[in-house]
Amino acid sequence: MPVLEARSLVRTYRSGETPVRALDGVDLAVEQGEFVAIMGPSGCGKSTLLNLLAGFDRPSAGEGGPAPGRADRRRRPHGAGPGGTGPARPRRRPMTLTLLRLALAGIRSRLLATTLTILITAAAAATLVIALEVRASGVDPWQRTFQAAHGAHVLAIVPSLDDAHTVAALPGVAERDDPVPSAVGAASIGGHSERLEFAGLDGRPAINAPVRIEGASQPGSGIVLERSFADALHIAVGATIGVPTPTGVLSLTVVGTAVSPSQPRYPRHNPGLGWVSRDTLARVQPDQSRWVWTQPVRLSDPAAAPGFADAAAAALPSAEAQAGGNAMISWQEQRDEALLDSQPLTVILGMFTILLLAVGFAVTGILTAARVSAQYREIGLLKAVGLTPRQVSTVFLVETAALGLAAVAVGFPVGAALAPRLAAPSAQTLIGSPSLAIQPWHALLAGAVVLPVLLLSAFLAARRATRSTTLAAIRAGSPAPTPTGRLARAVARAGLPLPATLGLKDLIARRRRTFWTATAVAVTGAVVVATLQMRAAVRIPIVGTVSDVPTELSVLVYSLDAVLMLIAATTLVAVMLLTVREQIRDFGVLKAIGLTPAQVTAGLVSAQALMAVFAALLSIPLGIGLYLAVVSITGGSDNGTVFAPWWYLALVPVVVPAAVAVTTSAPARLAAQIPVAEAVRYE
């Protein structure tokens, strides 16, 4: 009795306006226990027939599938649903489950590739999340500081007292305070002089008051320093600073430290800020025509602060003010200035995200292509039992998407947890520490950036292999690349030692893998070169200034360097293991004709090291360009930019190939030790 039947089975597709009949009246009966092979040229309808018999597609005419009583379903005429009514629907659920099972099997069977993909993708997702969260984590501390200071919705910094009164009298002002005069002078600290703005207070301001951190809140006969200025110059409460005045040096005792929501961090904002009494200000700068006045106002509608600032600037009658001697700072601008320390972090994190995605694209392509190569015969069998090339590619895409989602799930909490630590420099001018600001849409954005990169790489790697003919894949078992072209012939004629020649020809034969591996090495080298430049700039600051580079920024760069180097090293090991697995039989043949294990190892390692030499040379200009881009984007100038000593850069083409040789030597030695008999029998 047949277990599988087809009667007058027809399946017609349309190519534009032309009908294409893939099956034309097929009759088939398969008895229980019978083994049947469906053979024919590519495009004759084998896959279409199997899809119809399995219920994955529905025929244009006829009927087919398991015989009555089989697979818990009954044959019914084409076009009829259960009970003979309604249209039949293709059974897509079994195909979906099949694809998911194949993808899951691929993930579990290749733990090294799975781990490497998740590591790279999680690192990229984490850096992107940090870039998004680092500013948001400082918003709450700024708001707490603004509330404690009873902050000004608009600060009018004007050259005259009359201009200050004009701003305070404008419509929309709900609360005003007396204007605060200030003048820029100098402070002698530890034998060198620093610029310092002295703000003269008659008492505690009602608006935009300094928020006490340590010591006294009012200066009295001394001075209260803004905290980031005191921390940068290591000035403790109780210390004495010298202030040059027209009548001599005035000694002021530091009686306390404070913060203000309108004052950015020193030395990014220079000069620093100190609060003194009005009498002390008059001694520092007796010429009141050189004073600048700050008029703080609070508005009935805080959201209208930018518009009020524009109206205030237009309302000032002073010629000096109209010429640009004033500044109107809304509370939104105060917040942005206070949190501006996150900008270089965001730029560097964004660049590292791009670099990690580039490495991830390369590694995903390498690993997917290697898996396709290792499963070349299995792919042929899948196509023989009915899967189309698109469905086979879907298996790899589903696998990559699952790994990408897992990586985003790992990278998002890591990035969100690290963001407050990296936002710590902003806390020097704020109350409290940056808070954990977990925003789920950041995870969605990270996934929207990372997943398409991985999927595109996997698709491009799998597309070419899955288009091969079924019979060729089953016969070959795995595609055997052959070194062809002028470069391969030049290597053969170069007179190099046999191991080096074989290694180089293998790199040429697998040029796509070689290209992406070299890309990963070059990107990692470029980051190291850029870090050397940044380190030189940090260690050689401009004479007489305080370094504006937060410690957290250096730690971040070094940590991301370490992650990239770990990823590059793991990638090299994975690539070497893939190469070894594909060439075990070749190694056995080479050893059978007289090559020693040491020569086999040398052939593998020397080829990878030579590839690393070219990648390292390319990484030098890339790294310098990356460094200059960071300097430019973060507001620096190319003039006077500090570069690392030339001998640092000269070491890159030496150290990188040596590191690659050390990393790849272990798997190469293991492969070379496999006995000849086992290597030749390896399938």
Automatic annotation (TrEMBL):
It is a multi-pass membrane protein. Residues 60-92 are annotated as: Disordered. Its main location: membrane. The chain crosses the membrane at residues 347-374, 395-419, 439-462, 515-536, 556-580, 601-634, 646-666. Residues 4-253 form the ABC transporter domain. It is found in: Cell inner membrane. The keyword Metal-binding does not apply. Keywords: ATP-binding, Cell membrane, Membrane, Nucleotide-binding, Transmembrane, Transmembrane helix. Belongs to the ABC-4 integral membrane protein family. Belongs to the ABC transporter superfamily. Macrolide exporter (TC 3.A.1.122) family. This is ABC transporter domain-containing protein. It comes from Dactylosporangium darangshiense. The lineage of its organism: Bacteria, Bacillati, Actinomycetota, Actinomycetes, Micromonosporales.
